[in-house]
Design goal:
Strand order of the largest sheet of chain B: 4-7-10-11-12
Strand order of the largest sheet of chain A: 1-4-5-9-8-7-6
Largest interface: A-B, 53 and 64 residues
Low-confidence stretches of chain A: none
Strand content of chain B: 15-25%
Oligomer: heterodimer
Radius of gyration of chain A: 18 Å
Number of helices of chain B: 12
Distance between the termini of chain B: 51 Å
Order of helices and strands of chain A: EEHEHEEHEEEHEHH
Structural class of chain A: alpha+beta
Number of helices of chain A: 6
Structural class of chain B: alpha+beta
Mean pLDDT of chain B: 81
Shape of chain A: globular
Order of helices and strands of chain B: EHHEEHHEEHHEEEEEEEEHHHEEEHHEEH
Number of strands of chain A: 9
Number of strands of chain B: 18
Largest sheet of chain B: 5 strands, mixed
Strand content of chain A: 25-35%
Mean pLDDT of chain A: 87
Helix content of chain B: 25-40%
Low-confidence stretches of chain B: 339-387, 410-427
Amino acid sequence: MGYEVYDSPEVEDDYHCFEALNMPPDHPARDMQDTFYLAGGAGLLRTQTSSAQIRYMLTNPHPPHVRIICPGKVFRRDDDITHSPMFQQIEGLVVGPGISLGDLKGTIEAFLHALYGPEHPVRFRASFFPYTEPSVEVDLGCIVCEGRGCRVCKNTGWLEIMGSGVVHPAVFEAVNARLGKKVYDPEEVTGFAFGLGIERVAMMRHGIDHIRLFYESDLRFLEQFER
Amino acid sequence: MKVPYSWLREYVEVTVEPQRLAEDLTLAGLELAGLERVDGDVVFDLDITTNRVDCMNVYGVAREAAVLYGLPLKPLETAVTEAGTPAEGALSVVVEAPELCPRFAARVLDVRLGESPEWLKRRLEAVGVRPINNVVDLTNYVMMEMGQPSHAFDLAKIPQTELRIRWARSGEKLVTLDGVERTLTPRCGVVASPGPGLALAGVMGGASSEVTGTTRVVALEAAYWAPLAIRRSAKDAGVKTEASHRFERGADPEGPTLALDRIAHLLEKIGAGSARPGVIDRRPVARERRHVVLRPARLRAVLGVEVPKDKAGAILAGLGFVAQGGEAAATFRARSISSRRSAGISGSTRSPRPFRRPVASKGYGLRRGVSGRSGTFWWERVSRRSSTTPSWLKAARRRCPASAWLSPTRSPKTRPCCAARWSCRGS
């Protein structure tokens, strides 16, 4: 879709992972993501690939236009059958003049239809992330029961697929402040961002109920997938 | 947050089925996490995001529902018949730490302690609160109803009948209502007598001034606490409560006096006592109401869809915003209701669906993989799909661009490609 794949470090600092993303110290949203801190204040392991948004915008070769996809490992202090302390996310960021929530809806719908098939309905639900306003959570009609209600979708007929939203002006302001000039004028440019957990999507796509299967390298598991 | 359907309907006469209401609230950002049927009533369990503390109560959810369906929202009844000597004479309040407590309000109540009436107990149980006695139940009821936590002290157990709001001393000990002795840090706020601390401010009351069967006069407190202070305090004391959950996310600065009046009103209504004249209201920090500027052009730029100005105005008015600035002005200012922190417009979820072409510059086609759905899927080897494109799919692709995403394993007869939302230019 014409996006640049952008890689960013797994070891981050507080600025890129939280502060520039509109989560100042003591922000309640930091509760949602339990963080691994490195000993001796050497930084932290990123809790979301959104930190890549900030890194890219700071070093963007063609400002203020951004169209990136950032896959990568993220780390949270969470461990059960559907959560792993390390998992993979894909982050997307589009910035430019005239980008709106409408573009977000169109892009994400095209992406999900490509992945799951156009017969599955996609729904956008108001939500909250500190770095987007408005924020929307994206649901896909349950692929197991086709919306009739089952165990996987907890009888709602919908599966939560990803979080997204229109980039919060405070994120642009934070980047501008670091750059020392108004590269991303919130009055001129807008953008949207989205992020999804790859394992979670794969688990729903293939009906896999345990996240650790992805990391155990069991051939019986791996051989079921196409190369 | 649990919200009984019957309780919600006390404020807004919703006519839709509970299931439909839950779906509409979910799309508006109040996500349904579960739905229970109890004694002919329906109880919604809503997941409220941290920015929507204004909806962490039944009245707040009713306000959203009122806007969604364009229905009137009934005001809370707060009429109080006061009796006896003035409250100011019976209790004095000193705020020593204004950065901890920008607003502290109190009322003095004469009470007849006892059990709560059945309806009150049933409602509390429906939202997961254990009934204790009528006074404590009313404070919990009003917190669940309109979001303002409050606390009742037994006035006779407050030394020198004076409340001082201050930071805890390092190592100060306080036995909270749950019977646990907690060691406080200077980051914890306390409501204290001139001597010992009486309550962990904004988090939990203390055992020494608890309302019991012998209580005759109650000092009822409702305050606005600085969110960061409560967050740190709850962390240091190692306790989280319904109250601290709301305060640390920013409760309504206009809530305290409203809650006191509401509790006094209900106390009278259930025949459990009356309020002394006057409300003690300390506001050491003057607080201006926040203004939100909404520019229709910005709304269009962000949403990608036109929201007519009068519709935007109606939604905001329904949410409790007061519009300033004329209709003709390009922008209008809205005075926000005090508890609402971000101006997401929940009523707009039913607006016309904005849709543009995907932001893409190249053709794209991700492959659909295999699917194994049985519980023991790794024992069976799932056959790979053939790499050749079936002829029906080739034909479909010529006909309609949307069918590029069709799976070769599924027939277009049962799942027509035109289920895709963009227009099909082919035959």
